[in-house]
Amino acid sequence: MNALNFLPSLSAYDQLEATEGALDPLGLYPISDALTVNKLCPGVRERQKHPGFLVPIAIGARVAEKFDGHYSVENGIAPIQIFEWYVVQSLVKTYRIKEPEQLVGLPGKDKVSQAIDRFGCVNSENYLKTASVFGFYGVYKLLARSLGILHEDQPDSYCNTLISAWEQDQKANNVNFQAIAELARKAIDYGLRYEKTNRNWPHWEIFANSIKPRSPGAAVRDCIWSRLVSEEEPLRAEYIHYMVEEGADVLTRLEGGERLMHKRLLRRASQPMRELLDTVQCYEEFARLLTDAFNQMLHRASATERTTSVNVLSRLENVSRAVKRLPEIQSRLVDGLEAQGLGHRLEVFAPLFDSTSSPIDWAEALISHHINNQRAKAPSGKMPFFDRMENGSIITRPAYRLSSEPGASNDYVHQYRTSSLYSFARDLEKVS
After folding, report:
1. Which candidate in 279, 289, 328, 401 could, as Cys together with 302 as Cys, close a disulfide (CB 3.0–4.6 Å)?
2. Containing domain of residue 215, as a range?
3. Total domains present in the chain
4. Which positions ≥6 away from 175 have C-beta within 8 Å?
């Protein structure tokens, strides 16, 4: 079994739009994300898979310094964005035929491939819609900041350290930062003037061969690894070391994914790690109870084109399970989140704890919670999965009908970066 198969992944950065706020219908993700990105794995996001992208981020930050905040006149495109266009176009032009494995995990590769074929150049119209979020700079900048490569969008203390490691790997190719930076500055000058890449730029292959995010050199691998396992972030270091020493074996042999891996890690974890993972496990049980109940209610309401009463929904098995179990875990969950500085984030779920004495009231509370969660989504709210009638019954909106019956699950609802960290370790040659 592939160690990454147990977690869902996004197959294409170019297709991330979801129908009318379908993601996170109960608003459970923010607490999970805070437990992870602020505590367990600072800087690491689910979409991150290849830490070699930190190299073009470091180079781009140094190159962009020379432009002193200058943006293109017509549409205000930043130098770092133009640099990203050139990096992705270089990689796609160079490797899409002869070495396509170098493009695996490259954000925007499909868009850029189409742009090359149709126009020969990349611009804001044919690149990713929200490039500042879904381009490689947007995906990896939080990690770059956490590792000391960036401070906001400027070079930080370890930016030059990473560039020096990269230069060491490039000695055999007679490539250095000064040479690449000069090529990049001229390319960016063109981009600021015309708001596109120069289709006749002659340096695509030099750029691509020197960067290659999927194949970092030995010095870069050592540099990035030393930052990832630095004791400046002891929980992240402990988590990664466990994966390399024992976790990879767990991932390849056990079903159950991160939940079982965390259970195994608890046997040898430090006290801070035990406290954090206990909170993660409790929160994931809470999230699973809500998710399974919501999905079963959605499925039951989808079975008819007519309205479904809340009384009917309140008798569902997963609703009964949630009503019984939530009071049993409430104190542990509240204490755990408060210890992690996140207790206040549980306030939005208070009606679901307060209504467990009545299954009907609890089902009503879950529907109301979902509706409020959808309305609160940026930028101007999203439609709920249900339309609610004056008598309190609901009817499922067509886009959200659930045809297959969901069962109860013991798996985590959310991801805790195991897939990303395992991929990091593999790229950095710490696991095979």
Report:
1. 401
2. 37-230+420-427
3. 2
4. 167, 206, 210
